[in-house]
C-alpha cells in the first residue's frame, strides 16, 4: 500500500482494494468481451447491435477507469494488465468461435449478468468494511450493467 492521509484505516483500505482488484479484472475482461462481439458479429440487424456495443464498450471502460482510480485513491496499486486480469476475472469465458448475433447476445448476456452480480455482492462487502464511497461506486456500476443487460437482451428473439 502506498502512504496516504486517507482517513480509512489501512486494514479497511487493504480489504477494499482487494475487492476492487477483483472487480477491476472483471471489468477489463468485459471491455474485451464486448469488443470481441463488436468485431466479429454477423447477421440481421448487424449495424444496430454493432453501434450499441461501441456505446457499451465506452461505458464499461469508463467504469474500469473509476475502479482503477479508486484503488489508487485508497493507496493501492491497480493491477490492470490483460495478463493480470485474465488470471483474476470471474466472468464466463467468451466463445471465440461466436459469429451469429444470437450467439454473441447469449454470451454478452451471461457476461453482463455475472458482472452485475459480482458488483452487487461487492456493494455489501464494501459497506460492511466501512467504505460507503466504494459501495456507492459499485452501485453506480450495477446500474450501468443492469441497463446494458436490458439493451443486449432486447436483441433476443421474442417468445
From TrEMBL:
In alphabetical order, the GO MF annotations are: ferric iron binding; oxidoreductase activity, acting on metal ions
Q: Where is the Ferritin/DPS domain?
A: 19-155
- Domain of life from the UniProt record: Bacteria
Recorded source organism is Acuticoccus mangrovi
A single Pfam family, by name? Ferritin
Q: What family does this belong to?
A: Belongs to the Dps family.
Which PROSITE patterns does this chain map to? DPS_1 (PS00818), DPS_2 (PS00819)
Segments crossing the lipid bilayer: none
Identify the NCBIfam families for this entry: PRK09448.1
* The protein, known as: DNA starvation/stationary phase protection protein Dps
